[in-house]
Amino acid sequence: MATTPTRPTDPAALNAARATVASLMAGHHVPGLSVAVTDADRLLFAEGFGAADLATARPATPDTRYLWFSMSKIATATVAVRLADEGRLDLDAPVRDLVPGYAARSGEQPRVRQLLDHTAGAANPLPVRWVLPAAAGDADVSAATRRVLDRHGHPKRSAGGPARYSNLGYLVLAEVVSHAAGEPFEQHVERSLLQPAGMTATGYRHRDGADHATGYVRLPRPATPLLRAALPAGTVGDRHGAQVALRPFRVAGAGYGGLIGPVPDAARLLRLHLADGVVDGRRLLAPETARAMRTIATPGRPFDLGLGWFRRPADRSARPEFVEHWGTGGGFWNAMRLYPGLGLGVVVMANTTRAYDHSALMSALLPAFT
């Protein structure tokens, strides 16, 4: 299934891009994948490849919903800076003023802005078990998130140093957003971003009857018991050849990785940032705020950071220039990228745990739209 491009494209380049996608999927054993391309005004292209579910041979389409994992951080960062635009959140305030339990034992106290650009000194524990069954209620998810925060309740390093990517930092940022907004974090994201941006197929819960992708882990049969031991009970499903299915689950930590949705909605988020804070004629961010988010000002490891968006140090000299964010975890590997100079954004979501060459895929798509 594909959308009809809404501006002239090079058919030969588009077919070449499709061939690149097929080759990458075969080479990296990717079951299914969906991709979308947008400019600042409209969705240009969306298409699904392969299978959303191997057991039923259900195809991946543009409307297939994938677990975003850390691509969710761009939504979290967007609502945080929008609160700052509205005068409801001071990005330079100490985090402990808003989340009293999160404070440095010594040295500089982390500030809200430093959570955004990963310089707050937060630890980054492996989040393998930060998941619950899809049917888990909001109270269960909140309790699980609270246990994570209680266990890692202090920065690991002094704030203000080089950027060190941290899932935990965005869990704390979600607490900051909730405090500033005066409502639960998930509710605030839905009200202040997803609804006004028209991202109606995206949220923090699985939806009955929706076209959800099944996540897969490719591994040898003897390793299956190890996977079952590593993940919470009931998460690991049936094997399909070399691929092991993961049953639907929710992430305990909406702020760092909990969104579930299709590529056209992710393209809407890209469109908001390409248009300096406007989507469908509605301004959600000040222009200077949107530009600040994608300005890579903080060197770090493994990424150089803006206020949410990042870029690998190896890509500092890449042309055309871009910023991006990945979303990776059990069963899914996703990435979305802004090319501000081209006025284009690309998002790819796949139901595979192993990395594939998303950069080659995105680069192959560009000639069809430039």
From TrEMBL:
Signal sequence, renumbered to the chain: none
One Pfam family from the record: Beta-lactamase
Domain of life according to the entry: Bacteria
InterPro entries: Beta-lactam-related, Beta-lactam/transpept-like, Diverse_Enzym_Activities
Beta-lactamase-related domain segment(s): 18-354
PANTHER family: BETA-LACTAMASE FAMILY PROTEIN (AFU_ORTHOLOGUE AFUA_5G07500), BETA-LACTAMASE-RELATED
Protein name listed in UniProt: CubicO group peptidase, beta-lactamase class C family
The organism of origin for this protein: Geodermatophilus telluris
